Amino acid sequence: MDYILLVEQLLNGFQLGIILFLMAAGLTLVFGIMDLVNLAHGSLFMIGAFVGGTLTLVTDSLVLGAVLMVPAMFAIGVLVETIALRTLYRRSHLDQVLATFGLILFFNEATRLIWGPAGLAVPLPEFLEGTVALGAGITYPLYRVVIIVIGLLVALGLYLLVAQTRFGMLVRAGASNRVMAGALGVNIPVLFSLVFGIGAVLAGLAGLIITPITQAAIGMGEDVLILAFVVIVIGGIGSVRGAFVAALLTGIIDTMGRSFLDVVLLLFLPANAAESAGPALSSMLIYILMAGILFFRPQGLFPPRGATAAS
Amino acid sequence: MRSQLTPAHAVATLLIVLCATIPYLAPALDEPFYVIVFARIMIWAIAAISLNLIMGFGGMISFGHAVYLGIGGYAVGILGFHDVTSAWIQLPIAIGLCALVALVFGVICLRTRGIYFIMITLALAQMVFFLSVSAERYGSDDGLNILWRSEFGSGLIDLEDGVVMYYTIFAVLLGCLLLQWRMVVSRFGMVLRASQSNDTRVQAIGIPTYRYRLAAFVIAGVMCGLAGFLQANLERFVSPDMMNWHRSGELILMTVLGGTATLFGPLVGAVVFLLLSETLSTITIHWHLVFGPFLILVVLFARGGVMGLLGSRTTRD
Amino acid sequence: MLKRLAAAAAVAAIASSPASADIKIGFVTTLTTPAAVIGRDMRDAVELALEHIDGRMGSETVEVIYGDDEFNAQKGKQATERLILRDDVDLVTGYIWSNVLLASAPVVLGAGKILISANAGPAPLAGRRCHENFFNISWQNDQTPMALGELLNRDGVGSLYIVAPNYVAGQNMVAGVERVFAGEVVGKDMTVWPSQRDWSAELSKIKAAGPEGVFIFYPGPAGPAFVKQYQQAGLIETIPLFSVYTFDSISLPLFQEARIDAVLGSRMTQFWAPDMENEQNQRFVAAFRNKYGRYPSLYAAQSYDSMFFIKSAVEAVGGNIQDVDGMRAALRKAEFPSVRGQFRIGSNHFPIQNFYERRVVEDANGNWTTSVGPVVLEDHQDPYASQCEMGG
């Protein structure tokens, strides 16, 4: 097999994994700490793309747009948490699913009213265009390299935040045992708002960062949301480290499946059967992965220390 | 499940009467369109009842339940495609296939709990979904048209007759409501509900809850497959979309909206969900802007769904 | 609950109160979901056509009732049922998507009414399952990609890499190109539809395969996303991109906004272009741009045509649209000014028409649009017509 193609596909998988990680990090914290199934996390991904995209077009700078998007998404996140979600924490997962599904419908339609059905195209700044040589004959789109670097920096920052700061300690305490943390005097409402705000910023960042590649579209967060749920379940709910490993694993397996599965199938199957089975099987791969992991490790790969079943 | 009369009972009775009389009521009011709307609602209600069995009474939140709709439907579609239109072949195959799939899926899923259960049911359903998408011979994504409805080979049940089709669905709905009721009040249902609140304790007194839960999972799968069989016949069309995860999500929504763990919750939920989307969507294409907040309000102010609002006590209280 | 039911019933009663128009036409398209950009173009064109015919066909007043398929076959079928059973329309047209049309056709045809597709042209309805009351006013799915295959042959393209979405129209487009293309297909990827928006894996494979040309089919908003990534991967300067139904007036403004200059000059095949020189087309395009401030897409052109197509038949039967036999006979003649110029209706009720080369250009005002080139296939009939035995 062509090693250049292999390396490129690994990078592609890595880049997809980074986007999934940005989505999953917020989702897993919100789920682990607040015990909230937030389907509307995908909407935050979309809102980030549209709000950040608009800011980019207004300021004529993707960097400025991204910087301005951070406080905007934080504010939106805190607002959504305070108005709509706060009352849901004590409810069953089913109630949460119903209410946050309602939020998805609302956000999608509101976005359509504001931005129209066509979506939003965000141009890539000139200095991020083109490809970059990575040595050994490998060239790779510069912007995708930038995505990977940003994602790794965010992951590092998040790790330091969770592992090294007082805030992070509270977060970990909340993920392991919410009731105990509250009993020990942690200001739960403020902690929740902060965590949700950070989750919203990360999801929004993921949405904006991918928009110069895919464009912003209504409902763009929903398929990513399902993948992000797959990621946090594989990684273990409440674990940022688990989300990171699982996101990269999911991204790489999905990409590898799309790239090489048809070639592999050709070894066993006649050409036309391989041609039709390839796309189906490669779409199934990550679900097979998840089912397999849950079968052998029903708590995911890295369940937070001391956590019992998350539900 | 008390014998005293609550508004919930009144509404449930009214709905049953409405379903029973629509084929005559709707044309009389010059609204023949509502016959097919109600036929569709009843099929969704059957599927929601089957989900309620495991989700409401057994605490097993399946996020892939629509897969049985698809399997039941494709049994009709694929057999019909090969000119096998006899219901006496289609129906047993639909039921058998759903039971088999539910058994295999159940064995895998029931190892997990909570959100992990939700996600693994989703994963398994997605696999079948992608399988149907790749079935080029059977129309892949475009689905299959069904030229002939299932034939029972007797003058009594001729599904090509719209009224007969309607009352067949109605009869199956009544049967499922009855079965749900018998199951819930039986020893079987008690074990199921008890294992939802404290599985360890039930096991400790020597009851193998796993077997009960698995049995419920298979029964629910078969019941939902029956809904798929009916849907394929009513719509004369099957497509992978029947088992899209959105459909599974809608089934959960209907059940929660009506009121989980209540006998008539799934029916009420299906009626409210489908009638509301039907009417709102004719007023404005921006109907989601109203429908979304409506769902949130139901959760916030009507605990236990519409049935809860009407004073019906869920078995969990 | 009771109140809600009563309210629902009342609303339904209002919505379905008999309209005042003599002729009611149902028009099914996509009005919600991201694909609504296509539906909007179609509806705008129908409204424009109604203006141009002064709301009348012959002496009869006309009303068009829209149904939303929500980009979903089941929902499209339900919208069709609503039009037939509740709104009691006389004729149904529209339909972007092949799967929606296939699911909905039995409803209309079963009610004994005429159905005219303004876009979708799936193979079954052109061949084995053709129907005397079904007409198509656009093209059969295979035709445009067959023309593209011919274009590739004329260009002497020796090897081709194909990327298309994995649903039936996508498979048809690919089959159409492969049917005519004489060179070697060195790679083919069928991607998840409609959710896949990132083609990094496929682009890496294209780069590794190094073909002489790449063929894509991505209608609606997915197209710009693909081409953007094609450019970012550094491929657009090295491997020419050929497409069908990907560059149109819906996607080109997005390309322009995103400043993807490499799109200019990109070639495709099509039966129509905004700058075709006939009176009907020039009037249509000028009025559309004047009213909506943008170029019409081919979806708009076909929808505009469908109204004049129906009008010609209604006038031929003296306004009695219930005369299905008379309507059918008149529709077969297709005696109306089409925006595509001359064409005929074939034995399977699909058009026999020219397919042209079309190219992305910048107009005098700096807007990106498409321009018609030489004929690639002349008087072309789809390959399924011979399988059609008309008669029900």
Keywords:
heterotrimer; B: 317 residues; mainly alpha; ABC transporter involved in vitamin B12 uptake, BtuC; 2 strands; C: 392 residues; alpha/beta; Rossmann fold; 2 domains; eight-stranded mixed beta sheet; six-stranded mixed beta sheet; 13 helices; 14 strands; 21% strand
Protein described:
By secondary structure, chain A is mostly helical. Chain A has a domain at 3-219. In chain A, 75% of the residues lie in helices and 2% in strands. A two-stranded antiparallel sheet of chain A has the order 1-2. In chain A, strand 1 (131-133) and strand 2 (139-141) form a beta hairpin. The longest helix of chain A has 32 residues, at 3-34. Chain B is mostly helical. Chain B has one domain (7-309): ABC transporter involved in vitamin B12 uptake, BtuC, CATH 1.10.3470. Chain B contains twelve helices and two strands, in the order H-H-H-H-H-E-H-H-H-E-H-H-H-H. Chain B has helices spanning 7-28, 33-55, 66-81, 87-109, 114-133, 162-185, 187-204, 209-235, 245-258, 265-283, 288-301, 305-309, and strands spanning 144-145, 237-238. In chain B, helix 3 packs antiparallel against helix 4 (87-109), helix 3 packs across helix 8 and helix 9 crosses helix 10 (265-283). Chain B is globular, with a radius of gyration of 19 Å. Chain C has 392 residues and is an alpha/beta fold. Chain C folds into two domains: 2-139 and 278-352, 3-Layer(aba) Sandwich (Rossmann fold); 143-270, 3-Layer(aba) Sandwich (Rossmann fold), CATH 3.40.50.2300. Chain C has helices at residues 2-15, 36-52, 73-86, 98-110, 123-126, 143-155, 168-180, 200-209, 222-232, 252-257, 279-292, 298-316, 324-333; strands spanning 23-29, 56-57, 60-68, 91-94, 114-117, 134-136, 159-165, 184-191, 213-216, 241-243, 267-270, 344-345, 351-362, 368-380. In chain C, the strands form two sheets. In chain C, strands 7, 8, 9, 10, 11, 12, 13 and 14 form an eight-stranded mixed β-sheet that branches. Chain C has a six-stranded mixed β-sheet with strand order 2-3-1-4-5-6, with helices on both faces. Chains in contact: A-B, A-C, B-C. Chains A and B meet through helix 4, helix 9 and helix 11 of A and helix 5, helix 9 and helix 11 of B.
